[in-house]
């Protein structure tokens, strides 16, 4: 399972982090007057990541055995926009 876990994490990094539309994210944040000058670098990066992840997306990275406990800890209406991505 370790090889598969690594592949899934690598794919998440590739699809949702490395290839995020960072220029669009920065433009949206600028329109909201959220800039690096207004936040610490760590907080600004957290906000950027949140925006790039769909403003509240919950990345469930891994196989069923790794993520099975996460949905049970979330309100039922928060799971309406699930997407499954397979590398």
Structure description:
The protein has 87 residues and is mainly alpha-helical. It has a domain at 21-52. 54% of the residues lie in helices and 0% in strands. It is built from five helices and no strands. The chain is elongated. The chain starts with a helix and ends in a 15-residue tail after the last helix. Residues 77-81 have low confidence and may be disordered.
Sheet of most strands: none
Oligomer: single chain
What is the rounded Rg? 15 Å
Whole-number mean pLDDT = 75
Span of the ends, CA to CA: 15 Å
Helix/strand-derived category reads: mainly alpha
Number of strands: 0
- H and E string: HHHHH
Globular, elongated, flat, extended or rod-shaped: what is the shape? elongated
Beta-strand fraction estimate? under 5%
Query: Roughly what percent helix?
Result: 40-55%
Low-confidence stretches: 77-81
State the helix count.
Answer: 5
